Write a sequence for this structure.
């Protein structure tokens, strides 16, 4: 498992159109493990999209990754992912497929959502939940915003780690 | 009246749903300790129990919120609050309405 301050695993994963994305080449990258059917991921989804929009002019990248086993959970298939993107549910945020689950394992992702914030050097600077309450939209993914503000200002995030909360990742058997 | 909560341990929402269910039952003068808890542990059991996700609450064998076309399986269930927010647990008002309807019949 990557500790805070250590290099996060790099990866190259395809989005729903088959275009590969790699983290980095940005002042910060937010990697969000998520999926199509988890109520926690869905509850936090709009807040993550709003964050992506709000920080885009500062060059921050947001990459959403679905690592779930689509054999036992067909709602997490690439087709279902593509349908969500085509309905406009990702608003420009790349939605990547981790078919082998290698990236989720490399990150030791536990839940959907489970969020990892990387700095410009690819070091892990925050890991955990977007904010303290999936039920409260006014929280605005404040854990992630505070982490990004610190990173962009050249500071260490005050809150570097929180327990990820959500549905367990659906590992292949 | 038989009230049961079916859950899968891999989803963290059932303690909250159980607390909401017991509170609704107490508010309506029902004994909250009578909720039957049933754990769904395998995909095969999910199929045989017609379990679409955790938590599922049934009154006299009937789901308080019919799940429609959701597939059976071991997953967290998606609910919607009355204000439209996605939630891992039912809206407490939906719990109350379902219990009241069962009391009335």
């Amino acid at each position: 498992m990557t500790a805070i301050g250590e290099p996060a695993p790099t990866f190259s994963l395809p989005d729903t159109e088959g275009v590969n994305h790699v983290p980095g080449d940005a002042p910060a990258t937010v990697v969000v493990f998520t999926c199509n059917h988890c109520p926690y991921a869905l509850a936090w989804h709009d807040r993550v999209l709003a964050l992506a929009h709000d920080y885009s002019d500062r060059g921050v990248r947001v990459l959403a990754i679905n690592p779930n086993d689509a054999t036992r959970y067909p709602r997490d298939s690439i087709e279902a992912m593509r349908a969500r993107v085509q309905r406009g549910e990702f608003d420009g945020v790349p939605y990547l497929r981790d078919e082998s689950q290698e990236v989720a394992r490399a990150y030791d992702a536990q839940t959907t959502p489970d969020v990892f914030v990387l700095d410009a050097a690819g070091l892990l600077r925050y890991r955990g939940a977007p904010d303290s309450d999936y039920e409260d939209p006014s929280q605005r993914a404040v854990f992630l915003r505070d982490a990004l503000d610190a990173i962009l200002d050249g500071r260490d995030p005050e809150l570097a780690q929180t327990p990820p909360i959500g549905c367990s990742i659906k590992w292949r058997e | 009246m038989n009230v049961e909560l079916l859950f899968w341990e891999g989803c963290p929402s059932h303690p909250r749903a159980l607390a909401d269910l017991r509170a609704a039952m107490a508010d309506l003068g029902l004994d909250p300790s009578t909720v039957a808890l049933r754990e769904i542990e395998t995909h095969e059991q999910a199929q045989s129990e017609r379990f679409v996700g955790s938590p599922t609450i049934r009154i006299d064998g009937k789901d308080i919120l019919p799940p429609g076309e959701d597939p059976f399986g071991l997953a967290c269930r998606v609910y919607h609050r009355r204000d439209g927010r996605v939630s891992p647990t039912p809206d407490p008002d939906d719990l109350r309405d379902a219990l009241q309807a069962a009391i009335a019949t």
Observations:
- The helical segments of chain A are 39-55, 78-86, 102-107, 142-152.
- Chain A touches chain B through 18 residues (CB under 8 Å).
- The longest helix of chain A spans residues 39-55.
